[in-house]
Amino acid sequence: MKHKQRMAMCIGLALAMLPAAGLQAAPARADYKKLEKKYEALQAQMATMARQMTAMQKQMTEVKKEAVAKATMSEKATKAEFRRLYKKVMAASQRISELEPGNIQVLIDGDVNFQFIHKSGSASTFYADASPLIQVRVDKHIFINAGFDFYTQSGAAGGAQADMGAANINYELNNYMTIGGGLVSSPIGGIVGIYNPAPWNRWLVDGSLEDNLLPPNELGVWTRGGVPAPNNLGYFTYFLFVSNGPALASTAGSPYNTLTYGNWNPAAQNGKTVGGRVSYLPIPNVEVGYSFEYARPSADGAIRTSNSMVQAVDFNTYYVNKKIDGLVRFRGGWAWDQVGQGVIPGTTTFAFGNMSDGGQIEAAYQPSMCGIKYLDRMMAALRYDYIDGPATSGFPTPGHEQRWSVGLDYWLHSNAVLKFEYEFDNLSNAQHGNDAMFVQFAVGI
Amino acid sequence: MNASQYNRGIRKVIIAGAAALGIVVMAGCAGTPTTKSAAVTKKPAGVWPLAIQDPAAHESGAQIWSENCMRCHQLRSPAQYTPAQWGIIVQYMRLKAGLTGEQAKKVLAFLKSASAHQD
Question: How far apart are CA A91 and CA A104, in angstroms?
């Protein structure tokens, strides 16, 4: 009994002390469920926030990209604007400079030469020639060129003579092309119009026989220029034209069959000619060219049933090396004149239907690096030239003519030369031709 | 050869010439000078005319002058003419020698500079 009473007292005491000890009663299951739900809600909220963060980061990246793109575009726009402005300023500057006095530049150059000619069968004579060239640079695109030739002519009807060699306007269309019109040196054959434009620049005094087959100039329109070959495989030059055509010689005393170039005969000019020259330079010091001129010449307007085709090939090369103590040059060319059939005026006889051809090869050597005074200014030149005309034409003499020429030049200056030449002439219808000797002093201005 | 044959012949020549001219004009427009030369240089060798490269892109003015002028005549000293006179002469010689506009520019720059130095 005593034990039971003691137990009841302890329990009562303990229960009385519980609130004093601050202890609470154990949580109810409902509370636990509530807490669990709260935890789950928080977890869901966190997941949502994480998704939002990812989306925001993505958005930020896109905004950044957009900003960079906008900045680049702005930079590009600025550059374009700058280029536009630069062009505008340059154009204005160009215009201003064009308005300044003295912007049109004029240069008078050309050449003068005199020579002594002694030809067997003819009287010896002195000869003089002055060829001024007026060049005008109107602007960076337009260029004008006018050339004249004043010379003496011996003989009973001799005296001072004048001729016009050039009167042309050229416009530089682009990097590779210039167009022009007027009177210009003919490119056919290359030799006359390109390599040998002036007496001071010829290695020998006398012209080649091939020159007789080639037109000296063209009166018309043209395009010319240079175009690099693909893949750096050299370089092309071209010169294509439409011009007044040649005439057929038909006057009394003149042989039929031959073409005369002069561009002045209106009756012959109804038949225009198409022609040109194209050359290829695998390296700058080697050039090979082909040229042609296709026309339908008339003989003083009397007949127009014939056609003509002139074709020519040419080459030009030089080599400079210490091993040969200087400079060696080679040039050459061959031309063919083919004239179709026609009818002699006032007859029913067919004429023409023939071919003339001729050419030359020349070589020169200058020991410019030998180091010996005077010798380094000398140039030795050698040429073989040939022409074969129709037997009835007398062009320049019936049959063919061939010559060997030797020359010795002394270059006082790069544009002043004293020349001596001797020409051995052979004609097919004679034992011996008209050998000739020339002495010339020529200066290019 | 009768008149119609002649006309056909001359027509062929004109058509061939026109085609060649068209190609040159296209090449000229595609490779317009000056500022585009660097871009043209970068293009790989490919289909013509895109692979065209102006020789001026890799040659100096002095080199173009000596190699091209000497082809036809003795080299003239740059001191023989003033820079302004060289401007006229180079424009003329560009036609004679068939130089591109870029080549002529480089030659002129060289001659003007050399001429001025020797004054």
Answer: 17
Distance from CA of A64 to the nearest CA of B (A): 32
CB contact under 8 A, B103 and A284: no
Q: Is B95 helix (H, G, I), strand (E, B) or coil?
A: helix
User: A283 Cβ partners below 8 Å, 6+ apart?
Assistant: A234
Chain B: give the shortest CA distance to residue A386, in Å.
Answer: 22
Q: Which residues span the domain enclosing B84?
A: 54-118
Q: Answer yes or no: is B40 within a domain.
A: no
What's the pLDDT tens digit per position in A96-141?
766 666 678 899 999 999 999 999 988 899 999 999 999 999 988 9
Instruction: Flag residues of chain A having pLDDT under 70.
Output: 1-27, 94, 97-102, 156-157, 192-197, 249-258, 262-270, 298-306, 341-353, 390-398, 429-431
Scanning every residue of chain B, which has its alpha carbon at the shortest distance from the alpha carbon of A192?
A: B72
Question: Per residue in B81-91, pLDDT tens?
Answer: 998 899 999 99
Residues of B in contact with A294 (CB under 8 A): 9-10, 13
Residue B109 lies in a domain: yes
Return the closest-CA partner of residue A211 out of A191, A187, A195, A241: A191
Q: Do B24 and A201 touch (CB under 8 A)?
A: no
Confidence band of B31 (pLDDT split at 50, 70, 90): very low
A403 phi/psi in degrees, rounded to 5: -140, 150
Question: Between chains, do A274 and B10 touch, taking CB under 8 Å as contact?
Answer: yes
Taking an 8 Å cut-off on Cβ atoms, the answer to whether B98 and A239 are in contact is yes
Q: In B, which residues are within 8 Å of A235 by CB distance?
A: 55
Domain boundaries, chain A: 46-102, 104-444
In a domain, B69, yes or no: yes
- Cα Rg, chain A, nearest whole Å: 47
Asked if residue B65 is part of any domain, the answer here is yes
- What's residue B77's pLDDT? 87
pTM of this prediction exceeds 0.90: no
Q: Do B97 and A239 touch (CB under 8 A)?
A: no
Are A174 and B70 a contacting pair at CB < 8 A? no
Residue B57, min C-alpha distance to chain A (Å): 11
From chain A, pick out residues whose CB is under 8 angstroms from the CB of B1: 307, 340-341
Is residue B45 within 8 A of residue A228, CB to CB? The reply is no
Number of domains in chain B: 1
- Four-way CATH pick for A104-444: 2.60.40.10, 2.40.160.10, 3.40.47.10, 1.10.10.10: 2.40.160.10
Q: Which of B84, B85, B89 is nearest to B65 (CA)?
A: B89
